[in-house]
Structure formats: structure tokens, C-alpha cells
Design a protein that fits this description.
By secondary structure, this protein is mainly β. It contains 2 helices and 9 strands. It has one domain: Alpha-Beta Complex (Nucleoside Triphosphate Pyrophosphohydrolase). Helices cover about 15% and strands about 40% of the residues. The longest helix is centred in the middle third of the chain and has 13 residues. It starts with 13 loop residues before the first strand and ends with a strand.
């Protein structure tokens, strides 16, 4: 099928593709605390990730983001879920959620924030990005070559985040 037949049109809902990566080491999870000057999620803990650039597939983008933000190179990342985020605009976010495991210890902080290995049982003690308390159980139970989870995020009339999982 030629490019002109792909059905690309400005009057359709479009998405910005992003990755979100969660790395475990035994019973610890690597999270990044957003730099205090970040426009969004300053001083909150989140997974590693960012935008998928033109010319990248989702896995290559996840590996690049992981390397840029942590210094880690992990060969065995696996896709565990896809989240569609409707922020009430014509353009939303397509979030590809990955998981990986490592025994590598040292990580390198980046301009995005400071990295921390957090014991899984202590996650509730940390100021997490708003969706992580709901998302992390799905991510942490994801098995390599297992079923993906699918979710939809949107904001209600009071601008509160709502989350629905399809499975």
C-alpha cells in the first residue's frame, strides 16, 4: 500500500508515541525522581522513558531512553503494556510500557533527575507520579512473552485522571 493510502488525516485522533521503562533488580525497582525544575512531575518518582523519535521502533527508543537516562544497556527489555492517553485534545499519547531486569548496580543520573533503587515494599512511602500506584502492579506482574495489558487514561470534567484496563 502506498503512503498516500495510509489514511493519515489531520481530522483524526493522533498520538505522540512515548516509552516508559521499569527495571527491577531482585526486589528493587529503579525509578527516577524528577528534577525540581522539570515542567511536569518535578520531585515525583517515575519510570524511565521519553519520546519515540522518527526512524525508531518502540524497542530501539526504549533502549535509547534507558541508556540516556541511566547509563544502563539491557538487552532483554520486553513490552508489557500499551496505554492510550486522551488529554482532551486532538492529539493524545501512545505509551509503550516496557519491563526489564538487571544485575548491574551503578546507574548514572541525567538532566531528567536522580535515580534511585527502591525496595518494592517501600514504594508507598515515596511520592510517585499519579498513575504509578495503579500501573505498577500490572507492570511488575508482567512476564516475559506473557500477555500484554491494555489501558486507557483520560481526564474527567474535574480534571482528575481516570484509568481503565481492558484485561
Amino acid at each position: 500500500m502506498p503512503k498516500k493510502d495510509q489514511g493519515v488525516s489531520n481530522n483524526r485522533f493522533q498520538i505522540i508515541p512515548r516509552t516508559l521503562i521499569f527495571i527491577t533488580q531482585g526486589n528493587r525497582l529503579l525509578l527516577i525522581k524528577g528534577h525540581p525544575q522539570k515542567r511536569i512531575w518535578a520531585n515525583l518518582y517515575n519510570g524511565i522513558g521519553g519520546h519515540i523519535e522518527r526512524g525508531e521502533d518502540v524497542l530501539s527508543a526504549a533502549r535509547r531512553e534507558l541508556k540516556e537516562e541511566t547509563g544502563l544497556e539491557i538487552d532483554h527489555l520486553w513490552l508489557c503494556g500499551i496505554v492510550m492517553i486522551d488529554a482532551g485534545e486532538e492529539t493524545g499519547i501512545g505509551l509503550f510500557v516496557f519491563r526489564g531486569e538487571t544485575d548491574q548496580q551503578p546507574v548514572e543520573n541525567s538532566a531528567e533527575g536522580s535515580l534511585e533503587w527502591i525496595a518494592l515494599e517501600k514504594l508507598r512511602e515515596y511520592p510517585l507520579v499519579e498513575d504509578l500506584p495503579v500501573l505498577l502492579p500490572k507492570v511488575l506482574s508482567a512476564k516475559r512473552n506473557g500477555e500484554l495489558f491494555y489501558a486507557r487514561y483520560w481526564y474527567d470534567e474535574n480534571d482528575h485522571l481516570r484509568i481503565d484496563f481492558s484485561n
